[in-house]
Amino acid sequence: MTTLFTDAFLTALVAGVIAATVPLLLAGLGEQISEKAGVLNIGIEGMMLGGAFAGFWFAWATGNLWLGFLFGGLGGMAVGALMALFCVRLGLNQIVVGIALTVGAGGVTALLHYEQFSRLYPRLPVMDKLAIPGLSQIPVLGPALFVREPVVYLAFLLVPLIVGLFRHTQLGLMLQAAGDKPAALDTAGVSVLRIRTVAVLITGTLVGLGGAFMAIVGAGVFVPFMTHGNGYIGIVLAMLARGRPSWVMGGALVFGACLSATTALQLAGVDVPTDIIQMLPFAAVMAVLLVAGRGARLPAALGEAYVRGER
């Protein structure tokens, strides 16, 4: 009986790690694309909130969870479009605009939720899971890793796809040039503003999907300000990954484990104050920054608005 309980607990713990990892992975990958093009996208926390509310609302209104994910991506893209307008097209300060979008998206989504649901928090149905034949039968890990919602598999599949985008496509080369040497890209006849706009819109879409995952799969409900800093962790992951999507995935798993550990420790009845347990993920972020922050490789033109003709 004890063994069965232990196996079940470990399976639930690993499943919790994956559930916490997916939003961080999508946020980190999205931020990496934006940063590669030279845009420091501080606003991804707001994009994640926009995606979470839009995804939840449409899933609840239509009863279709996949439609919720579609509109979650569009909700994140909408906030990303504002980032592209103000920072890429108008050349405003990327940090100031990003913070403003995060604060604004938090307030708007909280207001929309209150207007629609007042103090009620309706729940969504559980999303169907897809079992991978053979692998799902592995003890302990099989049910946690290979009996998952299809969107989980798609999120991890993005890692090799983005690796291929960066290394083997013309768009990947243009993204890198937009972040490292935008003037040279402009001289070659490619619009730096267009490439950066595309990058920010892709970022908004991926981050919005991460927020939709939190609301539709992770919690099954939308709660105002429910992202709790996941977007900022995504920024850290992108900065420390040195342009490698696989490093974003590894970091997301580490921080996902820290987020899952907060719940596991509480369920295990560990006699530690709740506030200290909830600090674990952010303490891990600070520790990683202290250890590896100096080695982060960032694009030369990151955070700088591009004005044609300037050097």
Low-confidence stretches: none
**Considering the protein shown, what is the CATH homologous superfamily?**
ABC transporter involved in vitamin B12 uptake, BtuC
Task: Please name the CATH topology.
Answer: ABC transporter involved in vitamin B12 uptake, BtuC
Radius of gyration: 20 Å
Polypeptide structure, described:
It is a single chain. The chain is mostly helical and 311 residues long. The chain has a single domain (19-125, 148-295), classed as ABC transporter involved in vitamin B12 uptake, BtuC (Orthogonal Bundle), CATH 1.10.3470.10. 72% of the residues lie in helices and 1% in strands. The chain has a two-stranded antiparallel ribbon with strand order 1-2. Helix 1 (2-36) runs parallel beside helix 6 (150-168), helix 2 runs antiparallel to helix 3 (65-89) and helix 3 (65-89) runs antiparallel to helix 4 (94-117). The longest helix is centred in the first third of the chain and has 35 residues, at 2-36. The N and C termini lie far apart (70 Å). The model has no long low-confidence stretch (mean pLDDT 88).
Overview features:
311 residues, mainly alpha, ABC transporter involved in vitamin B12 uptake, BtuC, 1% strand
Task: Give a brief rundown of this model.
The chain is mainly α.
Layout of helices and strands:
Elements lengths: L1 H35 L7 H19 L2 H25 L4 H24 L12 E2 L9 H5 L1 E2 L1 H19 L1 H11 L1 H6 L4 H28 L10 H11 L4 H23 L6 H5 L1 H13 L19
Antiparallel strand pairs: 1-2
